């Protein structure tokens, strides 16, 4: 599998995982500060993963960057509350890692 293919799978996994987490954790509430950012990251990752390869790479870099920011902020909120948000932390690390991998891939394959 190529970096782009693996990144597509990861984008769908992070998007789906985040979306499911909203329901499982009871986070689908108006007072949830992260509801809209979570939905935005879900949509960005899903759309970027579905694009043709030429446009998918920069779109996934953007989507993974947004995801890393949202999920790292969620991780920080958990820490302030004295908890450790494992799912948010893993999602943030994965998102940042895949963004870096895609940038490196695009630099290597540049004409």
Provide a brief overview of the structure.
The chain is mainly alpha-helical and 111 residues long. 80% of the residues lie in helices and 0% in strands.
Explain what you see.
This protein has 4 helices and no strands. The chain has 111 residues and is mainly alpha-helical. It has one domain. The radius of gyration is 14 Å and the shape is elongated. The model has no long low-confidence stretch (mean pLDDT 94). This is Integral membrane protein.
What attributes characterize this protein structure?
4 helices, single chain, mainly alpha, 111 residues, 80% helix, elongated
Q: What is the radius of gyration?
A: 14 Å
End-to-end span in angstroms? Answer: 22 Å
* Count of DSSP-assigned helices: 4
Biggest β-sheet description = none
Would you tell me the overall average pLDDT? 94
| Uncertain regions spanning at least 5 consecutive residues | none
Protein structure class = mainly alpha
- Give the overall shape, derived from the CA principal axes: elongated
Strand content: under 5%
Domain tally: 1
Report the order of strands and helices: HHHH
DSSP strand count = 0
Binned, the helix content reads over 70%
Keywords: Membrane, Transmembrane, Transmembrane helix
Organism: Polymorphospora rubra
Protein name: Integral membrane protein
Q: What topology emerges from the helices and strands here?
A:
Elements: H1 3-24, H2 35-50, H3 53-80, H4 86-108
